[in-house]
Amino acid sequence: MKQIIIHVDMDAFYASVEVRDDPSLAGKPLIIGALPTERGVVATCSYEARKYGVHSAMNIKEAYRRCPHGIYMHPNFEKYREISAQLRRIWYDYAVKMETIALDEAYLDVTYSAGDFDRAGEMAREIKARTRSELGLSCSVGIAYSKTAAKTASEEKKPDGYFEIRTPDDFVNLMIDRDVKSLYTVGAKTAEKLNRIGIYTVRDIRERKDEILERFGKHGQLITELAFGIDDRKVIEYKPEDAKSLSREVTFQEDTDNYRMLDDVLVLLALSVEERARRHGLHGKGVTLKLTYSDMQSITRSKAITTADIDAAAIYRETSRLLEQVEKRPVRLVGAGIYNLSTDEGRQMTLDDYLKDPEEDQELITKRLQELQERYGLDFAGHLEDIYHGRVLYRTIEYMRKHFNG
To answer: Would the pTM of this model clear 0.85, i.e. be above it?
Structure first.
C-alpha cells in the first residue's frame, strides 16, 4: 500500500498560546524570545509581527528595529511542553506511527489507519476541529503521499490551512515554477550555488538533472529526486534513547570572565541534566562541557565515565575538572551534558558502581548548594525542582551573574 502521511504544523505556536491565554494580545505584533534589551533571537512571532519582516531565528535587535512597537515576551517552555503533550495525545488517536519534529509539528503515518485519502482527509479535519475545541488553537494540516509533499501541503494555506497532494504529478505541477528554495533540503547556501550556475526554479533542476548530479553528488541526487516528486522516506518514531546526547546550556546576557561563578553554574546545570535523563530513563557513558567565548568561538571538552549511572554529582565533578583545564577568556555560554546514551534495559553494573559511595555524591551536591545559597542569597528549600524548568534556571543563573558583577 502506498504511504499516506499527514503533516500537522501549529500556527505560530508559542504566540498563539499566549494570545489564547491573554486575549488582549490578539491582533497585535507579538514577538516571543529575548527582550530587545537582551541578547538572543526570536523564537516565534504572531502573524501581525511577520508583516514587518520579523521571523524566527532573527536577531532580537533586528526584530526591534523592524517592529519597535511590538510586544516582546520571554517564552514559557514548560507551558508549551504541557500543551504539546496534549496535542500528541490527539495525534496518536489517528497515527499508526508519529514522528515529532518539534513541540508543535509532526508527521503522522495514517497509511493503515485511514486506508485511503478520503478517510485521511476526514482525519485531518477532525484533528483541526479537536485542536480548536479542546485546546483553543489552530493548526495547518497537509495530506500527501510523502513526507516532503505533506510538509509542503501544510504550508500551502497557512494559517489554519488544509491542503492535499495525492501524487508525485500533483507535487510537480504545484512546484515546477517555484524557486529552488521551496524544495526541502535546499537552504540559502545551496540555493546560492544553484543560482550561480543559472538554476533558479524547480523546472531548471529537472532540465539540468545530470549537471546537478555531477556537481552536488548525494545531495544533488536528493534535490533532483524531489524535483521529480520522489521521496520514499518513512515516518520514524522518535525515542528519547535515540538521541546521542542530552545537555543543558545557558547564554549570559553579558560576557563573564568569573570562572568561580561558572563553576557554580555547573552545579545547577548538572542537576537539570540529571533530572531530564531520569525522566526518560536514560544514562550516559560520558560527560561534556561546552563553552562559547565572547568572540563566538565554541569549544567542547568531554570525559568518558566508567560507572553505569552518571548522576548530578558525577556531571558536576567532571565538568568542573574540565573547566579548570580550558583557556580562561570571557564566556557568553556555558553548557553541561552527557553522551553515549542508553536505557535502563541496556545498563550493566561496573566495578566502579560497587565501589561508589552514594552518600558521598549526595554530600557533594548538598555542600555545593549550601555554598550557592550563602554566596548569592538563594533559597533552594522547597524550590529546587523549579530549577529544572528552563526559564527559572535561566533567571537564577542571570541573577548569579549580576550578583558577582555587582
So the answer is: no
